Amino acid sequence: MTHVRLAPFPAKRSRWLLAAPVVVTAALVPTLIAATSNAAVKPADTAKSVTSASHQPRSADPSTASLIHRLDSVPVAKRPTIVLVHGAWADTSSWDGEMKILMAAGYQVRAIGNPVEGLTTDAETVADFLKSIHGPIVLVGHSYGGAVITNAATGNPNVKALVYVDAAAPAPGETNGSLSGADSILNKDTPSQLFTDVPIPNAPAGVEDLYLNEDIFVHHFANDLPVAEAEQLWASQRGASTAAFDTPSQTAAWKTIPSWYFISTGDQIITPSSELSMAHRAHSHITLFQGGSHLTLISHPNAVTATIASAIGSVS
């Protein structure tokens, strides 16, 4: 059984980790998704789908002040370094909101560039960076970055917690591209509707860079952001190599490292049902966020930071 949090960041540190859990089984996941698709969750909405319902309906993101207060309560000597890994069609600026809060609370934070060239080499790049950090690490990945941290953390004893934010968490042999979910827009539209493909000089045959087309980016990738902001992000997106999505994962760090999973019910790129399946498999601590998009880390950084803070609490 997996603990699923529907509540906002709890008010007291003693309730920091797995506070007021809603306990569900895998068989009840579809019902839970349906119950949490509205703007707010009412107790009656979930009463029929949970075996134990002690929760607080989520009504607003936690405030920046409350998050800083919680984070600041961790003794300096016990604070981990937070390493943030972005996903495809994005860059390190995806994490600006989370970094602002974590750094205001006095944490060492690093948002590092993800090459998005191929899962094996991307993970090696991140793994090499992690070796430069002394002390405990909370490793966070968004989207394709989740597949990267799943491989990069393996064998590094300093990585104490993994946090998946609307992300993929593959098992060995699985590819990132196979984990979007049957209802993902990536599996509904044709490649020409989804992407503009651009050749990569000296790349192996069949390997090219993909850019999301404007309609897909604005209305399915960043669908809870203001259109003007979504269009600016579309215009500044980085290309993502097809090898990043086609390369099989080699290891699964979530088998040995505790993990947290932030899932947006409005994600149309990696579907909530796919993420819930991966989260259950990893025995993750799950936070379901009502609404959002694949870019909830940009639209609701406080909510995402609350999940990161829960992982920090476990390390400390």
What is the name of the CATH topology?
Answer: Rossmann fold
Biggest sheet, open or closed, and with what strands and sense?
9 strands, mixed
* Low-confidence region ranges: 1-59
- The helix-strand sequence is EEHHEHEHEHEHEHEEHHEHEHEHH
| Strand order, largest beta sheet | 3-2-1-12-11-7-6-4-5
Shape: globular
Strand content: 15-25%
The total of helices stands at 13
CATH-assigned homologous superfamily: Alpha/Beta hydrolase fold, catalytic domain
Name the assembly state: single chain
Structural commentary:
With about 325 residues, the protein is α/β, with parallel strands linked by helices. It is about 35% helix and about 15% strand. It has a nine-stranded mixed beta sheet with strand order 3-2-1-12-11-7-6-4-5, sandwiched between helices. A three-stranded antiparallel beta sheet has the order 8-9-10. Helix 5 packs across helix 6 and helix 8 crosses helix 9. The chain is globular.
